[in-house]
């Protein structure tokens, strides 16, 4: 591994504007880079479907067909504010200048995968096919991953290089999520003259929420009300209200149970107070669950030990592209990158973690070749 080279690559990547939906420039840059490295691949045709700035990229470093292939997943988009990033390196970290995010989520993952591929080629490290998926729109609902056709993927195991925690962290469980929208309908009336004639949609919303079990529901399930709006003025009994909620669980049967609970409380409140409610449920992504003795977890754990990191196998409360690929039948885990304070202008990337994640990827490929 060339430490200076991977740092310079990360600097280059973070300076390419690529907020979600505006990925064209970085997609073109990465396409050229993979082509220069003589990887075979393509940009898929999902841009028209997603409406985002580019399609997803899929490239393969072809290897020994007697060695099982391995897949690495990263994303090219960033959150806002991510335009005009000016990276600074000091005290063993890379920062932005404080006016923007840095974008190490997930450009550190992209840089590490690319440097690992370069090193594997330069050092003639034995390997099977190494597949790389680079998605768009991860930060705004895993949009690119959801649209990606995984039938092109040969690998049975995959690694989303986009996780929290220091290198050595292996996320083998992440929750499924439902988004729940409630449109509540009441009846208008003058709030000062004849309030008893009206049916307050806001009162229905309050009644429903007060009867819901929210927050930490159990050890694997959470639920939250994220947005409430409705009404027009204080002198009008509100005939409309809108609630946006979510439910998450590591176990999809418990997700279904919590979602049904929320829906029932909405309908009970509407019936009790004389209104109506329309509930829309959107299944955002499936749960990720790779058993601790799975090939994916074992390979990452063994590689972590080889690079002098203690494997830390954890469950995570958030979703990622890894959830989507796991749902498509690829045994997927999420690898910790070590980035800090992501999605803020205080974001920073420890250079030692950048080196270590690159080293981990190389070591995983080496170990896969010896199986």
Structure description:
It is a single chain. The chain starts with a helix and ends with a helix. It has helices at residues 3-14, 24-36, 47-50, 104-122, 143-147, 201-210, 252-273, 295-306, 321-327, 351-370; strands at residues 40-43, 57-61, 70-75, 88-90, 93-95, 130-135, 157-163, 169-174, 176-185, 215-218, 221-230, 240-249, 276-285, 288-289, 312-315, 331-336, 348-350. By secondary structure, the chain is α+β, with helices and mostly antiparallel strands. The radius of gyration is 24 Å and the shape is elongated. Zn(2+) 2 binds at residues 105, 139. This is Tripeptide aminopeptidase. Residues 181-271 form the Peptidase M20 dimerisation domain.
Brief summary of the model shown:
By secondary structure, the protein is α+β, with helices and mostly antiparallel strands.
Q: What keyword list fits this structure?
A:
alpha+beta, nine-stranded mixed β-sheet, 10 helices, five-stranded antiparallel β-sheet, 371 residues, Alpha-Beta Plaits, single chain, Aminopeptidase
**Low-pLDDT stretches:** none
The Cα radius of gyration reads: 24 Å
Indicate the percent of residues in helices.
Answer: 25-40%
Beta-strand residue percentage:
25-35%
Number of domains: 2
CATH superfamily of the largest domain: Zn peptidases
């Amino acid at each position: 591994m060339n430490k200076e080279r991977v740092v310079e690559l990360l600097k280059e990547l973070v300076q390419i504007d690529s907020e979600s939906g505006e990925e064209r420039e970085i997609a073109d840059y990465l396409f050229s880079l993979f082509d220069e490295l003589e990887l075979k691949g393509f940009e898929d045709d999902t841009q028209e479907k997603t409406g985002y700035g580019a399609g997803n990229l899929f490239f393969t470093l072809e290897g020994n067909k007697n060695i099982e292939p391995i897949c690495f997943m990263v994303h090219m988009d960033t959150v806002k504010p991510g335009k005009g990033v000016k990276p600074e390196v000091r005290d063993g970290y890379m920062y932005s200048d404080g006016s923007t995010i840095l974008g190490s989520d997930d450009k550190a993952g992209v840089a590490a995968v690319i440097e690992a591929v370069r090193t594997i080629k330069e050092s003639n490290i034995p390997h099977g096919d190494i597949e790389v998926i680079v998605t768009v729109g991860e930060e705004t609902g895993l949009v690119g991953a959801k649209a990606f056709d995984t039938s092109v993927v040969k690998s049975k195991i995959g690694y989303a290089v986009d996780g929290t925690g220091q290198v050595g962290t292996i996320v083998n469980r992440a929750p499924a999520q439902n988004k729940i929208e409630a449109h509540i309908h009441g009846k208008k009336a003058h709030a000062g003259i004849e309030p008893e004639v009206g049916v307050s949609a806001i009162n229905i919303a309050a009644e429903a929420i007060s009867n819901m079990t929210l927050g930490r529901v159990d050890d694997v399930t959470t639920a939250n009300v994220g947005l409430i709006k409705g009404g027009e003025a204080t002198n009008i009994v509100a005939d409309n209200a809108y609630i946006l909620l979510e439910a998450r669980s590591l176990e999809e049967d418990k997700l279904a149970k919590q979602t049904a609970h929320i829906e029932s409380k909405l309908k009970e409140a509407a019936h009790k107070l004389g209104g109506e409610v329309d509930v829309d449920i959107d299944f955002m992504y499936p749960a990720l669950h790779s058993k601790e003795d799975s090939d994916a977890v074992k390979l990452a754990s063994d590689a972590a030990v080889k690079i002098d990191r203690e494997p830390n196998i954890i469950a995570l409360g958030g979703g990622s592209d890894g959830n989507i690929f796991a749902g498509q039948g690829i045994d997927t885990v999420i690898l910790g990158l070590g980035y800090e304070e992501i999605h803020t202008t205080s974001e920073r990337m420890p250079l030692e973690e950048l080196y270590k994640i690159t080293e981990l990827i190389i070591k995983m490929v080496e170990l896969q070749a010896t199986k």
